[in-house]
Specification:
- The protein is mainly alpha-helical.
- The chain has seven helices and two strands, in the order ααααββααα.
- The chain has helices at residues 2-12, 16-37, 41-65, 89-92, 124-162, 179-190, 194-202, and strands at 97-102, 113-118.
- Helix 1 (2-12) runs antiparallel to helix 2, helix 2 (16-37) runs antiparallel to helix 3 (41-65) and helix 3 runs antiparallel to helix 5.
- The longest helix is centred in the last third of the chain and has 39 residues, at 124-162.
Length: 203
């Protein structure tokens, strides 16, 4: 749900790189849930590996908006340099007032408007940082849970193998009786008195 919420706001802000990352994350989460329900440890392992990538991505987003290591929040990196859009929260954050001023009269800028945003209670980059931090927290919880589920599935498979679950013979295998014993039982059924008489003659 948190990933879907973030995807919606990234769509509104035309942030193409986060949109792609969120889409992949949603797909992997669904795969992990399917693996948990259907007892498929491999799917859960894929989810756990993706979680490491997802945490790395969110750390990058935090560094991007905090302008760490030469990154700039005003760059077009998250839009693949195909648009000049910024985060949706830059104009629609809590308390933000959006004002448009006409640029008519300025050569080359007719029919354009200048947009200014004032009165924001919280700068948009901090909202994005909180989003990413929350995603990291959820991802770490999911990683621990994934490791626990995989260990439980592995223990169940080992115990099942120990009791003969993967034995090539049938579950209700009946040991065959010796051939001579079967022959003797058959003879007794056919000749109930003859067998004892023959034994007397042998003596």
């Amino acid at each position: 749900l948190a990933a879907l919420e973030r995807q919606v706001f990234d769509f509104l802000g035309y942030q193409w790189a986060p949109i792609l990352a969120n889409f992949l994350h949603i797909i992997i989460v669904i795969l992990g849930l399917f693996g948990t329900i259907q007892y498929r440890p491999r799917y859960i392992v894929v989810y756990a590996i993706w979680i490491a990538v997802w945490v790395t991505w969110n750390i990058f987003i935090i560094c991007f908006y905090l302008e760490v290591g030469g990154l700039s929040k005003d760059s077009e990196l998250l839009t693949f340099n195909i648009s000049r859009h910024q985060s949706w929260w830059s104009e629609n954050g809590p308390g933000c007032v959006r004002k448009e001023a006409s640029m008519s009269g300025i050569k080359g800028l007719d029919n354009h408007s200048y947009i200014s945003v004032i009165g924001c209670a919280l700068e948009y980059r901090y909202i994005e940082v909180m989003h990413s931090s929350f995603q990291i927290l959820i991802a770490l919880v999911g990683f621990v849970y994934a490791c626990y589920v995989v260990s439980v599935f592995t223990e169940e498979e080992d115990s099942f193998d120990f009791i003969g679950g993967f034995d090539p013979f049938p579950l209700y295998h009946v040991n065959e009786k010796p051939t001579n014993l079967l022959f003797k039982q058959t003879y007794l059924l056919l000749f109930p008195t003859g067998f004892s008489g023959m034994e007397g003659m042998n003596k």
